[in-house]
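User: I'm new to structure prediction. If I give you an amino acid sequence, what do you actually give back? Let's try with this one:
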Amino acid sequence: MAASIQTASELDELDHGPLGRLLLKYSWPALVAMSLNAFYAVVDRVFIGQGCGVDAMAGLTLAMPLTMLFGAFGVLIGAGHSAILSIKLGAKDRVACEKLLGQLIAFKLLLFLTLTPLVYFNLDTILAWCGAARVTPGAYAAAREYLQILLFAYIFSHLSFGLSAMQRAEGGAFRSMLCMVVGFGLNLILDPVFIFGFGMGVAGAAWATNVSMFCSCLWALRYYWTEQTAVRLDWRRIGFHKGLVWRPFGIGFSPFFQQIL
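Assistant: Good question. You get back a string of structure tokens that encode the predicted 3D arrangement of the chain. For your 261 residues, that looks like this:
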């Protein structure tokens, strides 16, 4: 009951609260979350640079275009769906909100099931496009190992970022920020454990990211499992819904291109 009261008051505040206070309240958690997201790559590079050497650092640089492309596809889906969700919440259309949440998950799963095998079986060609011929064999091996491990857990990263964006759109800016804090904090702890403690090198950095993103995803889902959000997660809504399939992409394409350029 407390959770329902909390989300109802958040929605009422979005409808009637002072604009200046709302901007401050909802901007700083988003700023923190975006900063932590940017620091993910920095943390990996700090520990890999200290524990794995120059070739490993060069390998991460070689892998960066592909990781940014995966992130851009996540933004394409998440930004559009969260924006439309805000519009539908304002219109008090809860059914459409539930459909958007289910459709976000469906698109994330579709992206994972199509893009992951496509990249995995063409990884050498893609790395060649990224400039593999200009790096050392050690750097190429590091990039390949790093990406092969990340590929099969990207679904957790995409779901974590997507669900946190949806929670922010419904007024749960602080809860959304906590998803990023959980992932970043675990990555900060696990990177040195896996790289130095277990001697796993670049693979350790990739596994640390996978584990932290898995936990961040569970943290995001936790709010829906405990009914602490304004929009209910109905597993029967996971799919593609007529009238809602293409609208999010009209909004999501702009941040998508900003991410890849």
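You can read the tokens as a compact description of the fold. Here is one thing that stands out. Residues 2-260 form one domain.
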